[in-house]
Design goal:
The protein is of the alpha+beta class. Helices cover 17% and strands 14% of the residues. The protein has two helices and five strands, in the order E-H-E-E-E-E-H. A three-stranded antiparallel β-sheet has the order 3-2-4. It has a two-stranded antiparallel ribbon with strand order 1-5. The termini are far apart. The relative contact order is 0.17.
Length: 151
Amino acid sequence: MDLGKRMTKILEIDPDRGYKHLWIDVPDLGGGSALGNTVDRGVGYTPYGNHYGCHYGMEVVLPTGEVIRNGMGAFPGNNSWQVFPDGFGPYVDGIFTQSNFGIVTKIEMTLMPNPGGSDGFMCTFKEEEDLAQIVSALSPAAAQKSSDKLT
């Protein structure tokens, strides 16, 4: 079975949910796909290199021909796989990795924000209890800065 011949596209990009202008951690140039590397429990080269740890749900064709969707994709018409990583119901994703229990035909992945050069900064604070407020205040600024560079 040659899945690489027809599985050649990204199905959706939605900037409002934060998955546009992002990078996918590729397993190797010409050496496989992100989906294939994920179900093989392979790794990549960036901080998002744990591909299995960065997936949010799968669509799988079982040996019986049935199609199952796990994670939030299990709900008919649901378009929130990429928003809620823990999904719904039992967590069975692992049985479709490094196995022949089914063929994974769709997967949702977390993508890495474009690092865009030197966006690093350091923040210090005196009181540990201030951490939550500081993270809350800086998160929108960091997201906006990345977005500004990419448009």
